[in-house]
Write a structure and sequence with these properties.
single chain, about 450 residues, alpha/beta, Cytochrome p450, 5-stranded mixed sheet, 3-stranded parallel sheet, 16 helices, about 55% helix, globular, binds protoporphyrin IX containing FE, heme binding
């Protein structure tokens, strides 16, 4: 049995990075110069029904702070579809549920290919990610629909494999803490991200993937904090992007090494403990005649989706709950009185509240032709080349739907009549891993509160 009184003292910080301030300063210069240019440039032009001038506080990505604060709602709601130009790019921000689905159904030119290709290119560093993107859309995503459905997760054993791996990682941590005789300290962000990273890797890839190797974790965590650089136009700047590019190359090598024996055995081999879903990805990659690096990139992309958002949601949840004694006690008591986390009501409500409240990714589409759409009696023109982003924060922070919407209320969704948050996108490209994500989060939080007594470092120092 696992002890209940382990002295895990956890600090609620996101990973700090000594080069962050310098990077930010360097990144800000071109951004500010670009902003000034666009401001001047935009003053001299007007769009009839097209993009408006950008405002400082209107950038979708500027509202996201890594600090533990309620996010600020846009001061004035800009309507269900507003358009801006940022650094020469046209953006259309959709804020009404189901509007993205309508836009997709009214124009065949609206697609996920371009944003997916950009994302795969940034994450894998592949010179030409077009072929992999095509295979992801046509072969890999259809596999995930069934494999990651509630019944698929049970029949494939993926859910059980995640739970089991998490237990063994937690036992390992307990042994380390015991050996340190109560003097070890681990940052909350490291505990959360690393546990979910390792448990997901074990469930997806089996024991031959080096998930417990500190170098693998170090590369992955560097990428988490630096991916914004690889996603930006400064990704080729040698000084700034060097660290991120080297972590990416190293991570890709890890996937290549994991795969190569199987790959060159032409499928006449089996990777020990691999999940049936990942095995099907590999068979599809072979059938489509992808290269080894592309196959590695395919696994890396899906793995990234399965770890990063789940970890950040779990982190935000823990950071909130640890500041709230009553919720903390309620979740602990639920976790210790029942082993089936899927039936824990307060935990379930807290997960939904975190998905409503925390900053999470936004669905992105690309338009390859001009289109017009009528919304609430007004006609909008979306020009070819526009990126359409669905931002549900107006919905998530709507005071008419959620009382005191800016606040975090762990018990909010005990009220079954409330509409559930919409963090997983919508339509045919809605998140394929949403069921797995909720299980991963609940399994992790429930295991953590069952076996550890948490103390918030900042409070204990007061
Ligand atoms: C809290 C955790 C998660 C959040 C908030 C999240 C959110 C999202 C969002 C917003 C999208 C874009 C949807 C759209 O474009 O309409 C997406 C796509 C996707 N997610 Fe997740 N996700 C999470 C966890 C996961 C997990 C665990 C997996 C497992 C592999 C996963 C796999 C995917 C895949 C494969 C897609 C692409 C779907 C497609 O384009 O058809 N996600 N996710």
């Amino acid at each position: 049995m696992l002890p209940l009184q382990d002295p895990s003292r956890l600090v609620e910080n996101v990973p700090s990075n000594p080069t962050l301030a310098l990077t930010f300063a360097l990144c800000s210069l071109p951004a500010l110069a670009g902003y000034y240019y666009l401001y001047q440039h935009d003053k001299s032009r007007s769009f009839a029904d097209g993009p408006r001038r950008i405002r400082g506080d209107g950038f979708p990505w500027f509202g996201y702070s890594p600090e533990r604060q309620p996010r600020s709602r846009s001061k004035v709601s800009q309507g269900p579809l507003h358009q801006i130009v940022a650094w020469g790019k046209r953006l259309a921000i959709v804020t009404k549920p189901m509007l993205l689905v309508r836009i997709e159904s009214e124009s065949k030119s609206v697609n996920t290919f371009t944003p997916r290709q950009d994302k795969i290119g940034a994450l894998t560093g592949l010179q030409d990610p077009a072929r992999l993107t095509e295979v992801m859309e046509e072969r890999i995503l259809p596999i995930t629909i069934k494999a990651l459905s509630p019944s698929g997760l049970i029949s494939s054993g993926l859910q059980a494999a995640f739970d089991q791996a998490l237990m063994s990682i937690t036992s390992e941590l307990i042994a380390k803490l015991r050996a340190s005789q109560g003097h070890a300290t681990i940052r909350l962000s490291d505990y959360v991200f690393q546990s979910i990273f390792r448990a997901t890797a074990a469930a997806f890839f089996g024991p031959t993937f080096p998930s417990s190797d500190p170098d693998t974790w170090s590369d992955f965590s560097t990428l988490i904090s630096e991916i914004h650089i690889l996603n930006s136009s400064i990704s080729k700047w040698p000084l700034i992007a060097r660290k991120a590019r080297s972590a990416r190359t190293s991570m890709m090598r890890t996937f290549v090494r994991y795969l190569e024996d199987w790959w060159y055995a032409d499928g006449y081999d089996r990777i020990d403990g691999i999940s049936p879903m990942v095995e099907r990805f590999l068979l599809a990659a072979k059938e489509e005649e992808l290269g080894l690096e592309e196959a590695a990139g395919c696994l890396f992309s899906v793995f990234w989706d399965a770890v990063v958002n789940v970890s950040s949601t779990s982190f935000w949840l823990m950071a909130q709950v640890l500041e709230d004694d009553s919720t903390s006690r309620a979740i602990t008591s639920e976790a210790r009185s029942r082993s089936d986390y899927s039936k824990a009501r307060i935990l379930d409500s807290t997960v939904h509240e975190t998905l409503r409240w925390a900053p999470l990714p936004q669905p992105v589409r690309h338009t390859a032709a001009d289109m017009a759409i009528d919304v609430d009696g007004k006609r909008y023109i979306i020009h070819s080349g526009t990126q359409i982003i669905a931002d549900m924060s107006d919905f998530h922070f709507d005071e008419d739907l959620y009382a005191e919407a800016q606040g975090f209320n762990a018990r909010r969704f005990l009220d079954d009549s409330l509409p559930l948050p919409r963090p997983f996108g919508e339509g045919k490209h809605m998140c394929k891993g949403m069921h797995l994500a909720k299980l991963q989060i609940k399994s992790f939080i429930s295991t953590s509160f069952r076996v550890f007594d948490f103390k918030s470092f900042s409070r204990s120092l007061d």
